[in-house]
Amino acid sequence: MSAQVVKVGICGLGTVGGGTFNVLARNAAEIAARAGAAIEVVHVGARRDNPACDTGSTRVSRDIFAVIDDPEVQILVELIGGTTVAKEVVEKALAAGKHVVTANKALIAEFGNELFAQAEQCGVTIRYEAAVAGGIPIIKALREGLAGNRIEWLAGIINGTGNFILSEMRDKGREFDDVLAEAQALGYAEADPTFDVEGIDAAHKLVILASLAFGMPLQFSAVYTEGITELTPQDVEYAEELGYRIKHLGIAKQTGGGIELRVHPTLIPEKRLLANVNGVKNAVLVEGDAVGPTLYYGAGAGAEPTASAVVADIVDLARELSAGQQCRVPALGFASEKLRDVRIVPMTEVVTPWYLRMVAEDRPGVLSRIATIFSDQGISIEALIQKAPAEGEDRVPLIVLTNRAVQGSMDQAVAAIEALDSISGEVARIRVEPLDG
Amino acid sequence: MSAQVVKVGICGLGTVGGGTFNVLARNAAEIAARAGAAIEVVHVGARRDNPACDTGSTRVSRDIFAVIDDPEVQILVELIGGTTVAKEVVEKALAAGKHVVTANKALIAEFGNELFAQAEQCGVTIRYEAAVAGGIPIIKALREGLAGNRIEWLAGIINGTGNFILSEMRDKGREFDDVLAEAQALGYAEADPTFDVEGIDAAHKLVILASLAFGMPLQFSAVYTEGITELTPQDVEYAEELGYRIKHLGIAKQTGGGIELRVHPTLIPEKRLLANVNGVKNAVLVEGDAVGPTLYYGAGAGAEPTASAVVADIVDLARELSAGQQCRVPALGFASEKLRDVRIVPMTEVVTPWYLRMVAEDRPGVLSRIATIFSDQGISIEALIQKAPAEGEDRVPLIVLTNRAVQGSMDQAVAAIEALDSISGEVARIRVEPLDG
């Protein structure tokens, strides 16, 4: 059985919806040659028109649910965003026996488990390549391209706004608040930047990547999330002096004690490719037991990069549908009955090297006291920078790079250091990841 | 219809064959959970045992054709290499109705067109992810992940041996021959290094990538191939002074005049990620009209990285076979009847900036004569380095970086420069690629 046309409905005609509509129209011939069937957008549901799209003779409904009710629609593309109306749209589409393609990371991260189960019951497929790292085909790489591997860990720059801010702080020595304001003016950051700069957006993406990597149900609430709002240009500069860059990473790692799931600012060696991913770009580094490290880089957001991923999902589905077949690749890469709940490692047990910055009195004995505190906790010092005091100052910045230490020990060491008379204020600390396997 | 086991035969148990056997054994449970079926190696054909493999109860035949005759085998994995026996194995396997997975770039690049046609006639599938860039899932990215895009161009470091040599020349200022000898001692380069250092291996891979990107039949004989044997440590150093690195790239580009297909040493800006891919690693940069630039990085060779790609292909097939389905993704990403022969642009028409190095007499008027020659050809100079003469020398190295110029004009300019009395010997020249879209 072979169909010449696969019919698509799009709900939401904003940035990504408009981009998807336009890419499908512009590259229609090439996409049809690849998919083995023409992909026709037969129905668009949008509360308002998108001036960038010439919808021409395509049926457009203001009631987005009319797209689901359209019996012609075989694949419903959800590009509304959020987890309220979008969730209802996806649920109703699945119930109506339609395949779903979405770019909605929050929806998948928070409600993916139930939506995937519903899709399986309904005998249809949900695809969400665009939900992580925009146009980079990282979902497909984990779900299919690396299917022979036991994934050891992955680490990604998966929020373009945060990476833009950190890149600017480094390149120009600017303050966080100052760059954030510029990012907002450029449209890279939302008026309320919380999702981006506090790491929630990255956590949404990380939990999806981790489930694909390790074969476990989505556990959004288990991700440790730390933002970049406290970073100073000084940290960026000192990291540089030590041969590191600071990136806001999402990290998922398989360890003896379970799976680590964490989003936080991280010092990484400047020679790593990931350290050289700048501006709004995204990249994900994946370590597999057979393949070793592989890296995937590209645009993590934007109308057409995201549309590229949406259309790839549509083509995947169309290749099967046009032959009357079902898509056989499980939603999370593992057969649903093989997904296993795994212990998430509490942050107090996570072991990494550390970067610490403190302000100390510039007098004899201070360094030796600090060294003793570390030694008492079994933490060894890898590098130390003591800056010369500024004119008329008797306090100096002191930067310490430690070897691997469990957070619990570091908590105690930091508490002891902060209790010293010779130390002013709090000790700033950032985790270090060598990213060397 | 659902099968619990998908049965695989492996022909060839050398480096990659052994790696594939071991990865399938070690990760059997995880692979089965992903594939929806156990992958069982039921028959191995190998002229000799591989001490790294415990074949245990697996049937092993010294006659590799016995694997094809084995009625149990559903997927035949060809890991013999070369284009003689391997070709016969693949042809016979296809004729016997078996699906084929191969890592053989020469076989696909030179005989892919006929093998894909035969597979289609026989209703079976050939997969070859491991043929390009080892464990990096670049075939899948082009064939599926970027299916919504018109690919504009791609540029790849797709020969690890060559990249190791260039990395060492740069890091340590060493001569080509010296590093090649070390690479041979380390097992990175063959006793006869021609395939690697003359770019033939890269050309095999490039032609495969280009066909996937642009939807055209494989045209191995059309690739322009230039090796790295003439590069000197001086070129590497001067490139560095100008802000560039020299990489041996395979480049495929869609232009108004057709498709460019070329492998040659290339100066690329040092800030590009591709410039920072060092040692035996591979990376491919792909520019799509919707997604923009994306990059894929990882191990381009080695037993288990290559096995990772072979197993991914097996899993793809197993996911379909276990449900009684056919694999619907065309061999070259485009439906075979949609592949179109495209004009390959002759090198004389290819336009790039150029790096030139010459030895000139250190006296007034030389520079102005050279500048006039370029100007007469309509070529503008972007940068120029004139070195101080060595003690007692009256000749100096002169390095010129030009703007974009067609090879035809550059040929004439170089001939005119070489004819000057003030220039000694030949002008060395290397193309430059800004890689900026």
Automatic annotation (TrEMBL), chains A, B:
Binding site for NADP(+): 11-18
Active site: 205 (proton donor)
Pfam families found in the cross-reference section: ACT, Homoserine_dh, NAD_binding_3
Signal sequence bounds: none
Gene Ontology molecular-function annotations: homoserine dehydrogenase activity; NADP binding
Catalysed transformations (reactions): L-homoserine + NAD(+) = L-aspartate 4-semialdehyde + NADH + H(+)
Segments forming domain ACT: 355-435
Binding site for L-homoserine: 190
An example Gene Ontology biological process: methionine biosynthetic process
InterPro entries according to UniProt: ACT-like_dom_sf (IPR045865), ACT_dom (IPR002912), Asp/hSer_DH_NAD-bd (IPR005106), HDH (IPR016204), HDH_cat (IPR001342), HDH_CS (IPR019811), NAD(P)-bd_dom_sf (IPR036291)
Keywords: Amino-acid biosynthesis, Methionine biosynthesis, NADP, Oxidoreductase, Threonine biosynthesis
Enzyme Commission no: 1.1.1.3
Binding site for NADPH: 105
Enzymatic class: oxidoreductase
Pathway assigned in UniProt: Amino-acid biosynthesis; L-threonine biosynthesis; L-threonine from L-aspartate: step 3/5; Amino-acid biosynthesis; L-methionine biosynthesis via de novo pathway; L-homoserine from L-aspartate: step 3/3
Family from the record: Belongs to the homoserine dehydrogenase family.
UniProt name for this protein: Homoserine dehydrogenase
Protein's organism: Mangrovimicrobium sediminis
